[in-house]
Fold this sequence. Notes:
By secondary structure, the chain is α+β, with helices and mostly antiparallel strands. It has helices at 24-29, 49-85, 94-118, 160-163, 197-206, 240-255, 278-288, 328-335, 387-407, 414-424, 433-436, 443-452, 503-508; strands at 3-6, 11-13, 19-21, 35-42, 127-134, 139-143, 155-157, 167-168, 176-182, 187-191, 230-231, 237-238, 262-265, 293-297, 320-326, 344-345, 363-366, 368-372, 381-385, 461-467, 489-495.
Amino acid sequence: xxxxxQVSEGQLKGHTGKTLKIxxxxxxxxxxxxxxRIGSKRIFGLYPSYLRDQIHKQRLDKLWNPGQKKCLAKVTxxxxxxxxxKSGETVQGKDKLSKDNLDAGLDLLMQxxxxxxxxxxxxxxxxxxxISYHNGxxxxxxxxxxxxxxxxxxLKLRPFTVAQEYGKLTEMDNLNVSVxxxxxxxxxxxxxxxxxxxxxxxxxxxxxxxxxxxxxxLAPGAQIISVTIGDGRLGSMESGTALIRAMTFLxxxxxxxxxxxxxxxxxxxxxxxxxxxxxxxxIGDIVNKYGIVWAVSAGNAGPALCTVGxxxxxxxxxxxGVGAYVSPEMMMSMxxxxxxxxxxxxxxxxxxxxxxxxxxxxxxxPGGAITSVPKFTNRGSQLMNGTSxxxxxxxxxxxxxxSGLKQKDIKxxxxxxxxxxxxSAKKLPSVCHYGQGHGLLQVEGAFEYMTQNTGCEDYNxxxxxxxxxxxxxxxxxxxxxxxxxxxxxxxxxxxLDNENQCNDDKVNFNLR
Length: 512
C-alpha cells in the first residue's frame, strides 16, 4: 500500500486501473484529505484449496461455459455445413485450407476447454482493489468487492487487533476475512483461514452457544486469540518462520502485561533433530521462561512405538503431549458400533517413547468431536477425529482449571499444572501406557490435586534429567536391550524464569 492516489470529483483510479467512487464522508475524516493509499490483492491467494476448486467451477459456469459453448456450436455448425456442401467431392486447394482452419479451430476450442476445466490453476481469479486511510484514530481498509466500484457498498474494516472487525469477502465464497496494518500503513495484511481445522479445534475448546449449550465447547467463557501458523500456499502446513513469529508475538504480549495462559497447538510432524534448533529453544522459553501452559497433539502416526511427533518431542519435556482416546459412547454415536466396548486409545494415535527417553505422551483425551466448521464449507458442523481434536479438549479443560485456580488465588506454573494432570489421570486398563501416557484426562482430579498441594515448595520448579548423555530419560534400544546397562542419573532443579530467579531462593531450595 505504498502508492497513493488523489480523489478528483469523488473518484480515484485504483491500483488495477478501475475507477472507484469515494464517499464524501471518507474524504472529510481522512487525515490526508483527498489522498488515499492504494493497493490490490489476487483473491484466490486467500482461498483454501477446497474453496478455490468450488469457486473455480462457479466461475466456469458464469464466465467461461456460455461463451465456450456458443463458439463451439458455431464452429461445429460451420464444419458440418462445409462437409455437406462438399459431399462426394475431393477437397483440395483453398477449400482444403478452409477445412483445415475449421478443424484447427474446433480442436483449439476443445483443448482450451479441457485445460481450463481440469485445473483451477488456469483461472487466476479476480483481483480486488484496496484503498486505505487514517481518520486520526484508526486505519480504515476498504476492499473493493463490488462490480461497479461504488465503495459505499464495499467491505470496510478496521484492524482486527484494534476493533475485532471481520466480514464476508463475497456472497459467492462465504469466506470471512480480517485485516491488520503494518509499517505505518504501508502494508495491509489480509487474513483468512486455509482450512476448516482451526475453527473445529477452537470450537472444541471454547465454542459458545447461549441458545443451545449442548453445542458448547469445554470452556465456553474462554477468550481466544488466533495466531495463524498454517500456510495456504503449503496446503495449510506450518512453517518455521510462522512458528517463530507466533512465539515472538506471545513473548511480546507477556512483556506488555497481556499474557496468554494456555496454548493449544494441534500441529506438528516428525523432525530429524528434535533436540536442536532455534524453534525448539523458543518452545522451551515459552514454557520455562514465560510460564505459558502449552498443550500439543502427539500425532496420528501410531500404533507403532516411537511415533510421537515434534512437538511434544522437543528439547525440554515441559509441554503437555496429548494422545487420542475414544470412549464407548463415542464409538456408538460417531462410528455406529454395534456393541459397547471398553474405552481405549485410537489405533492411529502416536505412541512414545521419544528416542532420548521421554514418555512422549503425557495424557490422553477424547480424540473426536462433532462441532463447528467455517461458513465457506457450507456446513454448520462436522465430525473430525485425531490428536488435533484431543489437544483442544485438553486446552479447554486447562482453561477451566486455571480459571478455578485464579478464583482461589492459588499460585501455579506450567510445571505444577503438568504434574497435576499426570498424577490425577485415570489409568486405562489393558491400554499401552505409551499411547495413553499417564492416563485419561481428569480435570476435576487435577484441580483437587492442586488445591490440596497449594503452597508446595516446588510449584514453580521443573526437574531436568541427565542420563548418560540424554536429557529426558533412559531408552534402551537395539543391542542395549539384551544386556544389563548401568546408567548414572543426574537430577537438577530449574525455577520458572530461572535466569531471573532470586539467588537466595535457589540456594535455599532443598527437596527430598
